[in-house]
Design brief:
Elements: E1 5-9, H1 17-33, E2 36-42, H2 46-51, H3 61-72, E3 76-80, H4 84-87, H5 91-102, E4 105-111, H6 124-134, E5 137-141, E6 145-146, E7 149-150, H7 153-162, H8 165-172, E8 176-181, H9 188-191, E9 197-200, E10 211-219, E11 222-231, E12 243-248, E13 259-270, H10 277-312
Parallel strand pairs: 1-2, 1-4, 2-3, 4-5
Antiparallel strand pairs: 6-7, 8-13, 9-12, 10-11, 10-13, 11-12
């Protein structure tokens, strides 16, 4: 493998199906050219610096990098620090000094709407033309649509804010998830008969709609069926910032200090204030039963699908 890189360019928030098209093409180009595959992104969204307005994101930088590597087998993910000097850099200089000079780009892959350099003057057409002149490979990936809707991080953020995790997963190409290190809570779940693992919501992320979700908790390589509450728990808490509290079905153990990932699969109900903790306890029991039924039905559907594939996969001799 040469020292050169095939580089996918973008912010990759959510690592959705559109991003996947870029990343797959990058890995293909790297394989053809004997290059290493790379995703080059930024540590903060350019719009946040340009508009001076914070933009809620779908993921942390760590989760972005994990998805890019895990789902698309990209060799490396590079986070460039987005600052004033980079924002004001002329687009040709960004291409020649940054991408080619600093990061040894031998092939570049960008989306149809990729803009870069001072005032966004670099665009896909200019990128392709300049790469051709410099002898650098270049692919521009067209718009990716699903059901007539352009796949975009902006659209998926709206779905997450509404709690529509099933539709979000269709556009992402994977379940919407949050990860972090389990923190010690007030043991309220245990007192209500449903012990939970607690994750604070990382600062700067789009908060999912407050409520209860069918979920899966990934711990140490195991995917465990679960039910997750996202919100403030107004019946038993006065907290002002939302958090995730996940009850893992049929699980006993201590996960404090461990890194976990929680996939939010399906919205069950909105958060509400209950008149008493006893009524809350009864609702938690119903939530657990609903989540268990959903997981069991999903497992049955997968088993049936596998059986059908087995029958249709036979051959005659």
């Amino acid at each position: 493998m040469s020292e050169g890189r095939a580089i996918a360019l973008g912010f990759f928030d959510g690592v959705h199906l559109g991003h996947g098209a870029l990343l797959r093409r990058t890995v293909e180009a790297a394989g053809r050219g004997g290059l290493s595959s790379c995703a080059l992104t930024f540590d903060r969204h350019p719009e946040a610096l340009i508009t001076k307005t914070a933009m809620p994101l779908l993921q942390t930088t760590g989760d972005r990098a994990d998805l890019i590597r895990r789902l698309y087998a990209v060799d490396e993910v590079i986070f460039a620090h987005f600052e004033d000097s980079l924002m004001r850099m002329p687009w040709r200089q960004f291409l020649t000094d940054m991408l080619i000079g600093r990061f040894q780009a031998a092939h570049l892959v960008a989306g149809y709407d990729f803009h870069f350099g001072h005032r966004g003057e670099g665009n896909p057409e200019r990128l392709a033309e300049e790469c051709a002149r410099l002898g650098v490979g270049c692919d521009i990936i067209p718009r990716v649509e699903l059901a007539g809707i352009t796949v975009s991080s902006t659209y998926i953020r709206k779905l997450v804010a509404q709690g529509d995790m099933e539709r979000a997963a269709l556009f992402l190409g994977h379940p919407y998830s949050l990860s972090g290190v389990v923190t010690r809570g007030r043991q309220l779940g245990a007192s209500l008969g449903a012990p939970t693992v607690n994750l604070p919501l990382p600062e700067g992320l789009q908060c999912p709609a407050h409520g209860v979700y069918v979920s899966v908790c990934h711990v140490g390589g195991n995917a465990l069926p679960a039910v997750t509450d996202v919100g403030l728990k107004p019946t038993v808490s006065l907290r002002r910032e939302a958090a995730l509290e996940t009850h893992i079905l049929d699980f006993e153990g201590n996960l404090y200090g461990q890194s976990i990932r929680v996939d939010l699969l399906k919205f069950l109900r909105p958060e509400r204030l209950f008149p008493s903790t006893e009524e809350l306890r009864e609702q938690i029991d119903r939530d657990i039963r609903a989540a268990r039924a959903t997981h069991e039905n999903s497992a049955a559907d997968k088993a049936e699908s596998t059986e059908r594939r087995g029958h249709t996969g036979c051959t005659q001799t």
